[in-house]
Design goal:
BirA Bifunctional Protein, domain 2; 12 helices; 428 residues; alpha+beta; 5-stranded mixed β-barrel; OB fold (Dihydrolipoamide Acetyltransferase, E2P); 8-stranded mixed beta sheet
């Protein structure tokens, strides 16, 4: 049987009253009342009521909820409060039968914990709250790409299988690659820097990998990162780009995703702009005032960031970190070489992004590698690009999954990732 769907449920209008349509979706509810049956039919766009009468009702048989059906029928007005129209069924065909009972209840009448839902993620997408989260994520990605394109950034795709530990980090997944040792990329850092030679402004939205044995609601082994790199910009310039991106995402979704917000039960509040800038030295002073034992050069622990976050709720930039806490490619401040031209974007205690101005002088870059006990020979492919005329450049990377948690007011990134990967989860 060939099934041809003529309309999505959301396309049903008063102009179609009295006309025949063919819908496809899944049965969310089914009530048999004597010689009539009422089917609640849902597709990705919306929900409708189907009335089944007469011989068709007599021959309806047993259809489990969540089964996929096609319905041919006539659009008509309805007295039901929850529906704009209803369909008087002429034909109903079961296209995909659902078992009973299902491992999770997509309607949400019986709650399931997150691990159970993740184990049956495809079925969980029929839960309207879950579906709304991923519809929002779709709109966030649309907004990000639109804003970056308007700012003249060119989208690139960098390799995820790499031949060396490109940033010198230890948190890398290794694999055998045709008899050689390879790694999964933890960021596009070196590639995106190289691309500024000819493309000037580039961005990538892609998955990356970190072998961190972390068991928190904000860490993943595979995560989606939004990265930019821009020639002839310093770290203040790319901070401005980052802030405008976040503001555009909040404004776009707040205005265009009313239904999703209603289903999730969270109203998106557009943050105040400009974002506050708090220096590392200011953080040290605030922490000492709070009774913490900390000195210049110490990294900020999660407990420290929670104190700072309480002092500066919402979005703020944490700037001018000590050089010794930053990667080899970050440039120092001319007026104080102990400080870097770098920043993190925070949402309270939660780090969303890290970036800064990069070194573009090859000799200084080689010296910095040695300072951090890294062998310049391992970075030959990267360093040679700096001999071809490397422009001054800056950039950042931001975790999309963490940004999504701030947008919808939840504290577990697994809720906003289709199939999350962490130290305990490798399937489905």
């Amino acid at each position: 049987m060939v099934f041809v769907k003529t309309h999505d449920i959301s396309e049903l209008t008063s102009e179609l009253i009295g006309k025949e349509v063919v819908l496809g979706g899944w049965i969310e509810d089914l009530r048999k009342l004597g010689k009539m049956s009422f089917i609640t039919l849902r597709d990705v766009s919306g929900i409708s009521q189907v009335i089944v009468k007469g011989e068709l009702n007599d021959n309806l048989g047993e259809i489990n909820r969540q089964s996929v059906v096609s319905v041919k029928g006539i659009v008509q007005e309805t007295k039901a409060r929850d529906f704009a129209f209803e369909i008087k069924a002429e034909e109903i065909d079961v296209l995909g039968k659902a078992i009973h009972p299902l491992p999770v209840d997509p309607i949400g009448r019986v709650e399931s914990n997150i691990d159970t839902r993740l184990n049956h993620r495809a079925l969980d997408m029929r839960n309207q709250k879950t579906a709304s989260i991923f519809k929002l994520r779709h709109h966030v990605l649309q907004s990000l790409r639109k804003t970056l394109a308007e700012k003249k950034f060119i989208e690139i795709t960098t390799p995820k299988i790499i031949g060396s530990a490109s940033e010198g980090g230890a948190n890398l997944f290794s694999l055998e690659y045709f008899g050689k040792k390879a790694y999964l990329a933890q960021s596009p850092q070196l590639y995106k820097e190289q691309m500024t030679i000819g493309l000037e402004r580039v961005f990538e939205i892609s998955n990356f990998y970190r072998a961190e044995n972390s068991h928190t609601g904000r860490h993943l082994s595979e995560f989606t990162s939004i990265d930019i790199e821009a020639a002839f910009m310093d770290y203040n310039d790319v901070m401005d780009v980052l802030e405008s991106l976040v503001m555009d995402v909040y404004k776009f979704t707040a205005e265009n995703c009313k239904k999703e917000q209603e289903v999730i039960g969270h109203t998106i509040e557009v943050p105040k702009s400009p974002f506050e800038k708090v220096t590392y030295n200011q953080c040290i002073d605030e922490l000492k005032s709070a009774g913490e034992k900390i000195e210049f050069g110490d990294d900020l622990l999660d407990s420290h960031l929670r104190i700072i976050g309480d002092n500066h709720p919402g979005f703020f930039f944490l700037t001018d970190w000590p050089m010794k806490l930053k990667p080899f490619y970050i440039r120092e401040k001319d007026e104080d070489p102990e400080l870097s031209r770098s920043f993190d974007l925070q949402y309270g205690y939660l780090e969303l992004s890290s970036g800064g101005t990069r070194l573009h002088n090859p000799e200084m870059l080689k010296a910095r590698l040695k300072e951090q006990d890294l062998d310049p020979a391992q970075f030959t492919d990267h360093l040679k690009a700096f001999d071809w005329g490397m422009p001054p450049h800056s950039g950042w990377g931001m975790g999309l999954d963490r940004l999504m948690t701030t947008l919808i007011g939840i504290d577990n990134v697994r809720e906003v990732v289709l199939y999350p990967r962490d130290p305990d989860r490798l399937s489905p």
